[in-house]
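Re: that chain you flagged

S.,

Sorry for the slow reply, it's been a week of failed gels. I finally had a moment to sit down with the sequence you sent. For the record, here it is as I used it:
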Amino acid sequence: MAASRTTTPAAVQRSLVSDQVFRVLTEAILAGRYEPGEKLPTQRALAAEFGVNMASVREAVKRLEQLHLVESRQGEGMRVRDWRSHGGLDVITHLLFQAGGFDPETSRSLFEARRLMLREAGGLAAGRRTDEQAKLLEELAAGFARADDDAAAQGIDFAFFAVIVEAAGNVVFTLIMNSIRDIYFEHAAAFTPMVSKRRGLAPLYADAAGAIAARDADAASAAVEAIAAAHTKRLTQ
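Prediction finished late last night. Pasting the C-alpha coordinates below so you have them in one place:
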Protein backbone atom coordinates (compact mmCIF):
# COMPACT_ATOMS: atom_id res chain seq x y z
CA MET A 1 0.00 0.00 0.00
CA ALA A 2 1.37 3.41 -0.93
CA ALA A 3 2.24 5.75 1.93
CA SER A 4 -0.22 8.55 2.56
CA ARG A 5 0.80 11.97 1.23
CA THR A 6 -1.35 13.76 3.77
CA THR A 7 -0.68 14.49 7.41
CA THR A 8 -2.94 12.66 9.83
CA PRO A 9 -5.31 14.72 12.02
CA ALA A 10 -3.44 13.51 15.11
CA ALA A 11 -0.14 14.77 13.70
CA VAL A 12 -1.67 18.14 12.85
CA GLN A 13 -3.09 18.49 16.36
CA ARG A 14 0.25 17.54 17.91
CA SER A 15 2.01 20.10 15.73
CA LEU A 16 -0.38 22.85 16.81
CA VAL A 17 0.12 21.98 20.48
CA SER A 18 3.88 21.83 20.01
CA ASP A 19 3.81 25.30 18.41
CA GLN A 20 2.01 26.70 21.44
CA VAL A 21 4.48 25.15 23.88
CA PHE A 22 7.38 26.42 21.77
CA ARG A 23 6.01 29.98 21.68
CA VAL A 24 5.43 30.12 25.44
CA LEU A 25 8.90 28.81 26.26
CA THR A 26 10.58 31.02 23.66
CA GLU A 27 8.91 34.15 25.02
CA ALA A 28 9.83 33.18 28.58
CA ILE A 29 13.50 32.73 27.64
CA LEU A 30 13.76 35.89 25.53
CA ALA A 31 11.97 37.93 28.20
CA GLY A 32 14.49 36.76 30.80
CA ARG A 33 12.08 34.77 32.94
CA TYR A 34 14.62 31.98 32.60
CA GLU A 35 18.19 33.19 33.12
CA PRO A 36 21.15 31.92 31.05
CA GLY A 37 22.50 28.77 32.67
CA GLU A 38 19.27 28.09 34.52
CA LYS A 39 17.78 24.62 34.22
CA LEU A 40 14.39 24.27 32.60
CA PRO A 41 11.85 21.95 34.21
CA THR A 42 12.06 18.40 32.93
CA GLN A 43 10.11 17.51 29.83
CA ARG A 44 7.77 15.45 31.98
CA ALA A 45 7.19 18.42 34.28
CA LEU A 46 6.58 20.72 31.31
CA ALA A 47 4.09 18.27 29.84
CA ALA A 48 2.21 18.24 33.14
CA GLU A 49 2.36 22.03 33.46
CA PHE A 50 0.97 22.62 29.96
CA GLY A 51 -1.39 19.68 30.04
CA VAL A 52 0.06 18.18 26.86
CA ASN A 53 1.73 14.93 25.89
CA MET A 54 5.47 14.30 25.94
CA ALA A 55 5.73 14.17 22.15
CA SER A 56 4.57 17.79 21.87
CA VAL A 57 7.10 18.92 24.47
CA ARG A 58 9.92 17.02 22.75
CA GLU A 59 9.12 18.73 19.45
CA ALA A 60 9.06 22.14 21.13
CA VAL A 61 12.39 21.51 22.88
CA LYS A 62 13.98 20.38 19.61
CA ARG A 63 13.03 23.72 18.05
CA LEU A 64 14.45 25.58 21.05
CA GLU A 65 17.71 23.71 20.57
CA GLN A 66 17.75 24.61 16.87
CA LEU A 67 17.48 28.29 17.84
CA HIS A 68 20.31 27.76 20.37
CA LEU A 69 18.03 28.91 23.18
CA VAL A 70 18.51 25.74 25.24
CA GLU A 71 21.09 23.00 25.47
CA SER A 72 20.32 19.43 26.50
CA ARG A 73 23.00 17.27 28.08
CA GLN A 74 22.72 13.69 29.17
CA GLY A 75 22.21 13.56 32.91
CA GLU A 76 22.08 17.35 33.27
CA GLY A 77 18.70 18.15 31.77
CA MET A 78 18.02 21.29 29.74
CA ARG A 79 19.82 24.53 30.43
CA VAL A 80 19.00 27.94 29.02
CA ARG A 81 21.65 29.47 26.77
CA ASP A 82 22.40 33.17 26.46
CA TRP A 83 20.67 34.02 23.19
CA ARG A 84 22.72 37.22 22.88
CA SER A 85 25.87 35.09 22.65
CA HIS A 86 24.57 32.05 20.79
CA GLY A 87 21.45 33.10 18.87
CA GLY A 88 21.32 33.71 15.13
CA LEU A 89 19.11 35.61 12.74
CA ASP A 90 16.27 33.14 13.32
CA VAL A 91 15.76 34.65 16.78
CA ILE A 92 14.86 38.07 15.36
CA THR A 93 11.27 37.17 14.49
CA HIS A 94 10.60 35.91 18.00
CA LEU A 95 12.11 39.05 19.53
CA LEU A 96 10.20 41.32 17.17
CA PHE A 97 6.79 39.80 17.84
CA GLN A 98 6.95 38.82 21.49
CA ALA A 99 3.53 38.02 22.99
CA GLY A 100 1.96 38.79 19.62
CA GLY A 101 2.95 42.47 19.80
CA PHE A 102 5.45 44.53 17.84
CA ASP A 103 8.49 45.17 20.04
CA PRO A 104 9.68 48.75 19.35
CA GLU A 105 13.25 48.28 20.61
CA THR A 106 13.86 45.26 18.41
CA SER A 107 12.18 47.04 15.51
CA ARG A 108 14.56 50.00 15.83
CA SER A 109 17.57 47.69 15.94
CA LEU A 110 16.37 45.67 12.96
CA PHE A 111 15.71 48.69 10.78
CA GLU A 112 18.94 50.39 11.79
CA ALA A 113 20.84 47.29 10.66
CA ARG A 114 18.73 47.09 7.50
CA ARG A 115 19.43 50.74 6.64
CA LEU A 116 23.19 50.33 7.08
CA MET A 117 23.30 47.09 5.09
CA LEU A 118 21.23 48.45 2.22
CA ARG A 119 23.32 51.62 2.04
CA GLU A 120 26.46 49.55 1.52
CA ALA A 121 24.66 47.21 -0.87
CA GLY A 122 23.57 50.19 -2.97
CA GLY A 123 27.13 51.40 -3.38
CA LEU A 124 28.41 47.94 -4.24
CA ALA A 125 25.56 47.38 -6.69
CA ALA A 126 26.48 50.55 -8.58
CA GLY A 127 29.92 49.13 -9.28
CA ARG A 128 28.97 45.50 -9.87
CA ARG A 129 25.51 45.48 -11.43
CA THR A 130 24.82 43.99 -14.83
CA ASP A 131 22.90 45.83 -17.52
CA GLU A 132 19.99 43.45 -16.94
CA GLN A 133 19.93 44.25 -13.22
CA ALA A 134 20.04 47.99 -13.88
CA LYS A 135 17.12 47.70 -16.30
CA LEU A 136 15.14 45.56 -13.84
CA LEU A 137 15.63 48.10 -11.06
CA GLU A 138 14.31 50.89 -13.27
CA GLU A 139 11.28 48.74 -14.16
CA LEU A 140 10.62 47.92 -10.51
CA ALA A 141 10.91 51.58 -9.52
CA ALA A 142 8.33 52.46 -12.16
CA GLY A 143 6.15 49.56 -11.03
CA PHE A 144 6.27 50.76 -7.43
CA ALA A 145 4.96 54.16 -8.50
CA ARG A 146 2.06 52.47 -10.32
CA ALA A 147 1.24 49.87 -7.64
CA ASP A 148 -2.52 49.57 -7.18
CA ASP A 149 -2.47 48.58 -3.52
CA ASP A 150 -0.20 48.11 -0.53
CA ALA A 151 0.21 44.37 -1.05
CA ALA A 152 1.48 44.89 -4.59
CA ALA A 153 3.76 47.69 -3.40
CA GLN A 154 5.24 45.46 -0.70
CA GLY A 155 6.04 42.76 -3.22
CA ILE A 156 7.71 45.24 -5.56
CA ASP A 157 9.56 46.90 -2.68
CA PHE A 158 11.12 43.63 -1.59
CA ALA A 159 11.95 42.64 -5.16
CA PHE A 160 13.66 46.01 -5.67
CA PHE A 161 15.96 45.56 -2.70
CA ALA A 162 16.53 41.89 -3.49
CA VAL A 163 17.90 42.91 -6.90
CA ILE A 164 20.15 45.52 -5.27
CA VAL A 165 21.54 42.94 -2.85
CA GLU A 166 22.00 40.43 -5.67
CA ALA A 167 23.81 43.06 -7.74
CA ALA A 168 26.04 43.87 -4.77
CA GLY A 169 27.43 40.35 -5.02
CA ASN A 170 27.82 39.84 -1.27
CA VAL A 171 26.66 36.40 -0.14
CA VAL A 172 26.32 37.46 3.51
CA PHE A 173 24.01 40.31 2.52
CA THR A 174 22.01 37.79 0.49
CA LEU A 175 21.57 35.44 3.45
CA ILE A 176 20.54 38.32 5.71
CA MET A 177 18.05 39.44 3.07
CA ASN A 178 16.60 35.93 3.01
CA SER A 179 15.96 36.13 6.74
CA ILE A 180 14.39 39.57 6.40
CA ARG A 181 12.13 38.25 3.62
CA ASP A 182 10.65 35.62 5.91
CA ILE A 183 9.88 38.24 8.57
CA TYR A 184 8.56 40.73 6.03
CA PHE A 185 6.04 38.49 4.32
CA GLU A 186 4.96 36.39 7.30
CA HIS A 187 3.97 39.61 9.09
CA ALA A 188 3.15 41.73 6.04
CA ALA A 189 0.34 43.66 7.74
CA ALA A 190 2.73 45.00 10.39
CA PHE A 191 4.98 46.48 7.70
CA THR A 192 2.28 47.99 5.48
CA PRO A 193 2.98 51.59 6.66
CA MET A 194 6.40 51.34 4.99
CA VAL A 195 4.86 51.48 1.52
CA SER A 196 1.51 53.22 1.99
CA LYS A 197 1.03 56.75 0.60
CA ARG A 198 3.52 56.04 -2.16
CA ARG A 199 3.53 59.44 -3.86
CA GLY A 200 6.36 60.69 -1.65
CA LEU A 201 8.28 57.42 -1.79
CA ALA A 202 8.22 56.62 -5.50
CA PRO A 203 10.79 59.26 -6.57
CA LEU A 204 13.28 57.80 -4.09
CA TYR A 205 13.13 54.42 -5.83
CA ALA A 206 13.66 56.11 -9.18
CA ASP A 207 16.66 58.02 -7.78
CA ALA A 208 18.23 54.82 -6.46
CA ALA A 209 17.68 52.94 -9.71
CA GLY A 210 19.11 55.83 -11.71
CA ALA A 211 22.22 56.15 -9.55
CA ILE A 212 22.92 52.42 -9.79
CA ALA A 213 22.40 52.52 -13.56
CA ALA A 214 24.85 55.45 -13.75
CA ARG A 215 27.39 53.50 -11.66
CA ASP A 216 27.54 56.37 -9.16
CA ALA A 217 28.35 54.53 -5.94
CA ASP A 218 28.07 57.52 -3.60
CA ALA A 219 24.74 58.64 -5.04
CA ALA A 220 23.43 55.07 -5.00
CA SER A 221 24.37 54.60 -1.34
CA ALA A 222 22.68 57.88 -0.41
CA ALA A 223 19.55 57.15 -2.45
CA VAL A 224 19.09 53.64 -1.09
CA GLU A 225 19.68 54.84 2.46
CA ALA A 226 17.05 57.55 1.93
CA ILE A 227 14.46 54.88 1.11
CA ALA A 228 15.42 52.76 4.11
CA ALA A 229 15.33 55.81 6.40
CA ALA A 230 11.87 56.74 5.09
CA HIS A 231 10.68 53.20 5.80
CA THR A 232 12.00 53.37 9.35
CA LYS A 233 10.37 56.73 10.01
CA ARG A 234 7.02 55.53 8.71
CA LEU A 235 7.11 52.39 10.79
CA THR A 236 8.20 54.01 14.05
CA GLN A 237 6.01 57.12 14.00
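What I noticed first: Residues 30 and 84 are 9 Å apart (CA to CA).

Talk soon,
D.
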